Amino acid sequence: MIRLCKLVFVTGLFQFGLFTPVPLYGQAGVSSAAMGMARAGLPPSAETVVVEEYINYHRHDIPLPTKGDRVQLDLRWGDAGGSEAVLQVGLAAPRIVKTRKMPPLNLALVIDHSGSMSGDRIENVKKALLAFVGKLRETDLVSIIGFNQEASVLLAPTKRANLDQIHQVIETISAGGSTNMHAGLILGYQQAIEHFDERKSNRVILLTDGIANTGVTEPEQIVADSLKFNEQGVDLSTIGLGYDLNHRLLRQLAKSGRGLIHFVGDSKDIQKTFIDELDSLLAPAARRVRVEIEFEKPLKLAHLYGYQPRFDGRRIVLDLDNLNHGATQVILARFKMPKRDDFSVTAKLNYHDIVSGEEITQQKTATVRRGKKDDGALLADAELRKNVTIAELATGIKRMAVALEQEKYDEAVGAISAPLRTTKERYASLDDPDVKRVYRIAKKYRDSAAKYGRESGKKR
User: Fold this and answer.
1) CA separation for the pair 72, 206 (Å, rounded)
2) Sheet of 105-112: strands edge to edge?
3) Hey, which residues does 349 pair with through a beta bridge?
4) Which range marks the domain in which residue 40 is found?
5) pLDDT: is 303 or 105 the higher one?
6) pTM here?
């Protein structure tokens, strides 16, 4: 089993009682494991702090697609003052206001009901499932698979029209036993494949705490077996439950399955994931999404916030997760500006339109004019100002986590203190709720890390 993070920091923080849940709830936007765990007050690690998930947690002010396009490409510059500027590449997929406009659904719900799911955890899941199936359409096909030490089909593929039957099955779920995640996941895929239809949204949703301890437990094998079904056209979304989930395994599964990883820690997360984000969870808009950013000499890339890019000369290539309806996404790149009045950068978007079946390419070029003085002109664009501020805070949290895992406590505090100061300079009253949310998380981490450093010093 893969461990969530190094125990040096985790056990110490909880030993001194320094982390308590942070009661911060997101606005509209896409849920993510990184933000969910941060909001719950879980300690950060280099592995679990995913910068792009912080950036993309809230809904962005990006123009929606027009003329039948499935994704809108938006490009804008912000002069960061002096010799630097920030490029924002934004993507937006249209929301589906009416569920009848969503693609037909072939859905397998795979529910962990092992002993680790007992108590409030399984009861919250059942409440969420009851609300969730109530939002589906009469003709949507739903199957329910439960697993503990064994996996079983609790509900064979059934139309949502049989709502009473579905409710009865959900109500009977109880927790106990060990966790054979592999068996549950594969059985869920088999139910989805049995009724596979390329015209439908064929998807498995896995709800678990991610701790596999029976049957096939090797994460690499679980991911490899899951991928075989993904390659047949069945997508996967993973929803982590509680505060001790195997984050890496769930992330690997979601990535290979072209879906999202969510985190459900409280009733707000449940509402956000299962009700508010139904479009994003179930309605795919674009597959094989790729963004290429090409910049000219003598422009130099100073920093790309998050993601796992490939560099091809003066071209940045990012292969992104599938985009579902209702989703927005932002990529931020900071450049060092040459000593001339203006320069341009070109962004190209490629994706497979799920509705039309076509391969789509969009391309846009944006030009920035260097400011005459270090006047912080980045702040002129409110959307860019917000996203860059959140990205800087998230980057500081990640750097802090790396330093903490090396027991470099002063360095850890310094890594997050600088972006905290910058945030207060830009938002003196913290009037933006999205910025305030991440600021409070970062400050909580900073204060706890500083206290832990002092306590560790006393023990030496």
Assistant:
1) 30
2) 151-159, 141-147, 105-112, 201-208, 235-241, 261-264
3) 291, 362
4) 7-58+381-459
5) 303
6) 0.75
